[in-house]
Write a structure and sequence with these properties.
95 residues, 5 helices, mainly alpha, Arc Repressor Mutant, subunit A, 2 strands, elongated
Length: 95
């Protein structure tokens, strides 16, 4: 039985690595969905947009789009220019 004192003790284990594995799985799924189901990068190349426009145009909720934009920016797949998000371009000679 758990007591009030048990709830005040510091944990004996660190679940951080489990959360990192979970986040990695979500990241892979999100990238696959963006590429395979939304054709997101091609759409964004033709329609650089802010987050609200992306949500409205693709019929998506704000929170998943925010997570997606943050993830893809961290992966250097997207960048922001004048409050618009667009795909990161390859340097000349790398395409």
């Amino acid at each position: 039985m758990i007591t009030a004192d048990d709830l005040l003790r510091h944990p004996l284990t660190d679940p951080t690595s489990i959360y990192r594995y979970r986040d990695g799985l979500y990241a892979t799924d999100m990238l696959a969905a963006a590429i395979c189901h939304l054709d997101f990068f091609d759409w964004l190349k033709e329609h650089p947009a802010d987050q609200q426009t992306i949500c409205r145009s693709l019929g998506l909720q704000e929170r998943p789009v925010d997570v997606m934009l943050t993830l893809f920016t961290a992966m250097d797949l997207l960048h922001n220019t004048r409050s618009r998000t667009e795909p990161t371009r390859l340097p000349p000679g790398q395409n």
